[in-house]
């Protein structure tokens, strides 16, 4: 029709192709500002991040562990192994922490003994077992346990028994066995446990005092056997 442009396959408002353009090649899409749109942001986000330094990852793991509570070197080494940190890198990081005092197994052992004895009433045998489970060296553990005297251990045993006796029910014989078993599970040796229970029973009432005086050698030997069995079960 006269006065109108002929309709081309590219649309009514299509501009004529530029010299050298290949009609079969799609032209780049343009954004609002006339620039070609950038690549898909989702595809960019899915691209793998560059690998992190292994030592940096190891330090972060250790610091997260230490933020919860103090740890021994063995505990931190175990945490690093579980996260796939190599032995070489783990040793380097832990050695550095040793140097600057972030890791101190001796201080850990002393604090552990003091806290667990005061808070849970644990005796040296139970404390030694806990320190061993946490990887504390035997000599280091012995030094820490040496700060807990026999007198302090006996006083704690007596205090534990007196507290339990306030709510204990049953015949003196049954109460006696329950109490020595309780002390055994906390790591007290037979002599300390039996003496603590006898003294506490004797101070409780005339009936309990009479029972404590009548405990014969056979009963004591049987109680000692129960203590040893309970102690091995917790050791």
UniProtKB/TrEMBL annotation:
GO biological process assignments: regulation of DNA repair
Region described as Disordered: spans on this chain: 1-55
Domain RecX third three-helical, first and last residues per copy: 152-196
RecX first three-helical domain location: 58-96
Predominant place of localization: cytoplasm
Domain of life, source organism: Bacteria
Key words of the record: Cytoplasm
Domain called RecX second three-helical: residue spans: 104-145
GO cellular component: cytoplasm
Cellular location(s): Cytoplasm
One Pfam family here: RecX_HTH2
Described function: Modulates RecA activity.
Family: Belongs to the RecX family.
PANTHER family cross-referenced by the UniProt entry: REGULATORY PROTEIN RECX FAMILY PROTEIN
HAMAP family: RecX
Name of the molecule in the record: Regulatory protein RecX
Organism: Micromonospora musae
Gene: recX
């Amino acid at each position: 029709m006269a006065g109108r442009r002929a309709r081309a396959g590219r649309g009514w408002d299509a501009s004529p192709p530029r010299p050298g353009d290949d009609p079969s090649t799609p032209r780049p899409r343009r954004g609002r500002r006339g620039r070609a749109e950038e690549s898909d942001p989702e595809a960019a986000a899915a691209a793998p991040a560059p690998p992190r330094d292994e030592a940096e990852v190891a330090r972060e793991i250790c610091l997260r562990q230490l933020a919860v509570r103090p740890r021994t070197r063995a505990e931190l080494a175990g945490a690093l192994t579980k996260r796939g940190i190599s032995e070489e890198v783990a040793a380097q990081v832990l050695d550095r922490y040793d140097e600057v005092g972030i890791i101190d197994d001796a201080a850990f052992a002393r604090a552990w003994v003091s806290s667990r004895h005061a808070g849970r009433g644990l005796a040296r045998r139970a404390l030694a077992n806990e320190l061993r489970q946490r990887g504390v060296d035997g000599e280091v553990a012995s030094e820490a346990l040496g700060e807990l005297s026999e007198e302090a251990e006996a006083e704690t045993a007596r205090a534990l028994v007196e507290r339990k006796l306030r709510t204990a029910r049953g015949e003196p014989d049954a109460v006696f066995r329950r109490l020595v078993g309780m002390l055994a599970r906390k790591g007290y040796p037979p002599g300390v446990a039996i003496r603590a229970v006898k003294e506490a029973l004797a101070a409780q009432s005339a009936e309990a005092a009479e029972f404590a005086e009548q405990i014969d050698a056979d009963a004591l030997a049987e109680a000692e056997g129960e203590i040893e069995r309970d102690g091995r079960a917790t050791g």
